[in-house]
Amino acid sequence: MSTITRFVGRRELLRELGISKTTILRWTAERGFPEPLPNSGQVPIYDRGDIDRWLRGERIAEGQP
Description:
- This protein has a two-stranded antiparallel sheet.
- It starts with 6 loop residues before the first strand and ends with a helix.
- The protein has helices at 10-17, 21-30, 48-61; strands spanning 7-9, 45-47.
- It has one domain (7-61).
- The protein is mainly alpha-helical.
């Protein structure tokens, strides 16, 4: 059985999405990308469910399957 991690650190998220820190900050400011969890400390942590929902919404908006 596989374990799905609910949270993901910024470094891992950047690697998975193939983007830079600058891009994720710009997406957050300009495109409504989910903010890191409050009080996540020096290493920002994101809710994977929020990221997945955002990605699905972007694909739909761009007309991609």
